[in-house]
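Example S7 (structure tokens).
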């Protein structure tokens, strides 16, 4: 998602969305920040409009490639999960649709959908209106609701959420695959099975750790190389397992024959491009970056820690590659980063004291940088 632009959009009370009866809208959770004079909250509403695929979706080349690779057998629980997940990649995206949303009594334009069905627009919500909606003065953490404005005879409700995040405090930027959810990205067959055949399973202890941070006032941003098509099952997984709500920042992906087996793909360029705008939106906040060693998180997070030393308070990397903190890779990834600002960990329980130090605005003990051999 691009950086928040200081655009003021005109409120259009009579505007409605171009949503047909066979079309569906999903809104992705986003964050809002205070503008310069604290007169308004600004954010980018983001969603997708599509028509569920009911026809010959099973005959697609991408589906056939995945089915062969996974050896999906008919009339099994795995086949049911496969059908349910892969359908999310094969909907008919609806382009050129103008969407409007209602927030409280006002209606705002939410953008025109592109060829991939996604729409985005900047919205400026007066701070006084946000206070009315919440019944109190907003602090970091509360959520407000928005809703698509449908046509008069359309009784369906498509809703979304916006988190109001203050200028100061602690925010967690978290990866998903192999950081909070078992995916096994480094083993392609297991990665595909965990993505398309099996129920998502959490990494033990991570939900409790994030809840501990949320209770201390931390906001969460889930930044992952998973495709947007998996947003709904991923959000349901986070809710079911007790992860705190947060904004989602996923990847655009099209299921084709040549890319069907690379559904997660490389994250080198993608992640920094999504994290940088979050850092830019909150120059006064401190950030905890949480990822894993399975892909490029150490390199990406280490570079961000060097580039933004005043903002990146700590980097935590879940060790899924059985490496040591003094390995050549880790030393290179975190070169120039103070030892007390990063940690390679095996279990979530190792991080509780470090988290308490961060939320209390204390520095982590210097010896925590390197994991014991």
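Recovered sequence:
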């Amino acid at each position: 998602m691009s950086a928040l632009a200081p655009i003021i959009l005109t409120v259009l009370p009579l505007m409605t969305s171009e949503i047909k009866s066979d079309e569906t809208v999903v809104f992705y959770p986003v964050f809002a920040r205070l503008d310069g004079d604290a007169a308004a909250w600004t954010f980018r509403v983001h969603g997708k409009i599509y028509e569920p695929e009911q026809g010959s979706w099973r005959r697609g080349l991408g589906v056939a490639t995945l089915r062969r690779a996974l050896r999906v057998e008919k009339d099994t629980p795995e086949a049911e999960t496969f059908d349910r997940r892969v359908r999310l990649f094969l909907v008919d995206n609806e382009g050129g649709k103008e969407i409007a949303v209602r927030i409280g009594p006002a209606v705002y334009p939410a953008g025109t959908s592109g060829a991939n069905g996604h729409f985005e627009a900047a919205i400026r919500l007066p701070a006084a209106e946000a206070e009315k909606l919440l019944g109190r003065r907003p602090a970091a953490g509360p959520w407000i609701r928005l809703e698509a404005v449908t046509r008069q005879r359309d009784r369906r409700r498509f809703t979304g959420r916006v988190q109001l995040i203050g200028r100061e405090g602690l925010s967690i930027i978290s990866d998903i695959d192999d950081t909070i959810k078992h995916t096994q990205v480094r083993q392609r067959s297991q990665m595909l099975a965990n993505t398309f055949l099996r129920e998502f399973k959490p990494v033990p202890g991570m939900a409790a750790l994030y809840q501990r941070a949320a209770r201390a006032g931390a906001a969460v941003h889930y930044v992952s190389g998973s495709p947007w098509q998996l947003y709904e099952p991923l959000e349901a997984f986070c809710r079911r397992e007790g992860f705190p709500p947060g904004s989602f920042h996923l990847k655009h992906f099209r299921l084709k024959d040549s890319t069907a087996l690379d559904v997660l793909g490389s994250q080198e360029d993608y992640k920094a491009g999504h994290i940088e705008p979050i850092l830019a939106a909150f120059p006064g906040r401190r950030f905890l970056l949480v990822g894993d060693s399975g892909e490029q998180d150490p390199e990406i997070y280490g570079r961000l820690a060097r580039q933004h030393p005043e903002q990146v308070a700590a980097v935590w990397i879940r060790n899924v590659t059985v490496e040591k903190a003094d390995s050549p890779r880790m030393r290179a990834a975190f070169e120039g980063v103070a030892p007390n600002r990063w940690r390679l960990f095996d279990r979530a329980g190792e991080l509780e004291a470090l988290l308490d130090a961060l939320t209390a605005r204390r520095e982590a003990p210097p010896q925590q940088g390197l994991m014991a051999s």
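Notes on this example. The chain has two domains: 24-52+93-164, 169-369.
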